Every structure is written in C-alpha cells, then in structure tokens.
Amino acid sequence: MPQPEVNTRRRDRKGGRSKSKPNRRGEPRPRYTVGLPSTVASQVERYAETVDASMSKAIAALVRIGLESQANRKREFFTRLKENLAKDDPKEQDRIVDEFRTLILGR
Would you say the pTM of this structure is higher than 0.85? Predict the structure, then answer.
C-alpha cells in the first residue's frame, strides 16, 4: 500500500510555510549551536561590540580568521621548509622539525 506523502516543512505562526533564508548563492545555510567557555564568550561579545556585529556574525568572522591564519602558517612553514631542504645544518633541521611539531600538534 503506498505511503502518504509527509509534509516536512514547518509552518510559521500565521499558518503559512516558512522558508529557510538562502545565502547569497541561494543555498540554505547550515545552523550550528556552539558552547563557549564564559571567558571566550565575553571576548566574543567584546569583539562583536567593537565591530558592531551580532554574536553569530562575530563567531563566524573569528572562525574564518582563525582558519585563514592556520592556512597561512602552514603555507609559510612549507615555503621555509623548501628553502631549507638544501641546507645540511643539523641544528636548522632540528629547529624545523620542532616548528613542524608545534604547527601540527599546536604546542
């Protein structure tokens, strides 16, 4: 026996269907809930006030900045690694290994 079609869209308070707001590309945005330690939350609040943005936009901006920073650090490291591969200085090689360990492990 065929199953009845189930409507999974939510209705707004007036009884109509609500649509998720599309982003600039017309795709629905994923939504996440995050828990922040109180010290981090207060820092984000101060940042949001400084840039006159909502907490959500401030968190998104800070995450984007952090990811870009991490990518830049990796790019810089590998550029320096390529420059130093030709050198046979053991101290320099040890320093590069320690820097790589710090970059990968975050210590």
Answer: no
